[in-house]
């Protein structure tokens, strides 16, 4: 199951291009962060950039999903990649704060329409039964691209400045456009488009609201995303606070987290078991481990827990994405994926400030304890709700006593 998606030529083309593009994206992120801090000295300005990238997804995501269900994916993706290349090259020419804000906002608008289209296109690259493995491999490539992009970008930004990183990112989008042009359309799995009278935002909202299993999965994704995904905040708070670590300690934890993310993606791709049970098990596991991480005595103990947390988080997020696609109509997929994107953006916008406030109020350990308890309760509640929605009864495994034990 691990390499099943790679048997498809179209998927191999897309995976290679996506790896290059992801690396370029993270190089640009690093370059932007360096540029903002070096010119303004303000971390708040970085927060504004992140907000400008997230807000369009919340406002326009529904319309993006509706269009994704009505338009052919490949031409839309070629256009979006060309626009992203132009934005990267604009940063190369005029890297001023006002332009950075404008590029961040424009990138968010593109993402609002591009995200659902990417989901539909990715599903068309592989057979339906290989979708779970394809998404898991995509997570591995995303993590690998992030590691490679940040590592190479960290070297180049000191030697050449951030402009070269923007130029490399712009060129990476041309690689994606080339891959899209080389895709064999005859080998793509047919994805039905929405009927003219059934392609609106309201139709998508009505459909999502009529799917209890999808609603429960989305609710779990929001709670665990808001209270259990902001590891950059909690890792920094723990290192600077009770663990008494150094900047090198934070770098170690970030590396361990990246390794765990890759391991989780490989594990899921190998098993191909993107089931609701896997979703609940991974959600419960990372919630309990998050609670336990608050009690870590030192940086190495914290790192030992971060590794399985990162692996479980990738498994959970990938299964969420797989289930909301497999458990919904294909002509509604764009709108369902748009809803997932909105939920993910909301969890980040709500969760990061909430975790930061908890860390300031209760301390880093207190924030992890409270958030871990809340997400553990949410995972158990989600299991009960899914059992009810599926018409099943939750049964805990009870070991049977043997005759010897009974005697």
From TrEMBL:
UniProt keyword Cell membrane, yes or no: yes
Topological type in the membrane: Multi-pass membrane protein
Principal localisation: membrane
Pfam families listed in its UniProt record: MFS_3 (PF05977)
Keyword Membrane on entry: yes
Keyword entries, A-Z: Cell membrane, Membrane, Transmembrane, Transmembrane helix, Transport
Protein name: Transmembrane secretion effector
Gene source species: Krasilnikovia cinnamomea
């Amino acid at each position: 199951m691990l390499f099943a998606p790679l048997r498809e030529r179209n998927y191999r083309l897309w995976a290679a291009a996506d790896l290059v593009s992801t690396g370029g994206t993270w190089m640009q992120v690093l370059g932007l962060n360096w540029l903002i801090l070096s010119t303004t000295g303000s971390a708040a300005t970085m927060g504004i950039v992140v907000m400008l990238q997230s807000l369009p997804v919340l406002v326009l995501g529904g319309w993006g999903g509706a269009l994704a269900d009505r338009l052919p994916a490949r031409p839309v993706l070629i256009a979006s990649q060309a626009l992203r290349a132009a934005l990267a090259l604009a940063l190369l020419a005029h890297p001023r704060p006002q332009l950075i804000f404008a590029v961040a906002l424009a990138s968010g608008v593109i993402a609002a329409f591009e995200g659902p289209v990417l989901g539909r296109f990715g599903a068309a690259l592989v057979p339906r039964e290989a979708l779970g493995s394809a998404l898991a491999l995509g997570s591995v490539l995303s993590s690998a691209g992030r590691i490679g992009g940040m590592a190479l970008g960290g070297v180049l930004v000191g030697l050449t400045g951030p402009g070269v990183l923007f130029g490399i990112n712009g060129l990476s989008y041309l690689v994606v456009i080339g891959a899209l042009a080389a895709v064999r359309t005859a080998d793509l799995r047919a994805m039905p488009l929405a009927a003219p009278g059934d392609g609106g935002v309201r139709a998508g909202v009505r459909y999502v609201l009529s799917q209890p299993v999808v609603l429960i999965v989305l609710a779990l994704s929001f709670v665990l995303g808001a209270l259990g995904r902001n590891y950059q905040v909690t890792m920094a708070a723990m290192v600077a606070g009770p663990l008494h670590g150094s900047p090198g300690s934070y770098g170690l934890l970030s590396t361990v987290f990246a390794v765990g993310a890759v391991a989780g993606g490989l594990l899921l791709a190998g098993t191909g078991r993107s089931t609701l049970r896997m979703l609940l098990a991974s959600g419960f596991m990372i919630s309990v481990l998050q609670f336990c991480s608050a009690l870590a005595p030192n940086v190495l103990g914290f790192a030992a827990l971060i590794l399985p947390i990162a692996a479980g988080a990738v498994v959970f997020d990938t299964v969420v994405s797989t289930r909301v696609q497999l458990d919904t109509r294909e002509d509604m997929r764009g709108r369902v994926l748009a809803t997932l994107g909105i939920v993910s953006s909301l969890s980040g916008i709500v969760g990061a400030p909430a975790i930061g406030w908890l860390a300031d109020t209760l301390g880093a350990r207190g924030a992890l304890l409270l958030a871990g308890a809340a997400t553990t309760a949410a995972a158990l509640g989600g299991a009960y709700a899914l059992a009810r929605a599926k018409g099943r009864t939750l049964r805990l495994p009870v070991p049977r006593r043997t005759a010897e034990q009974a005697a």
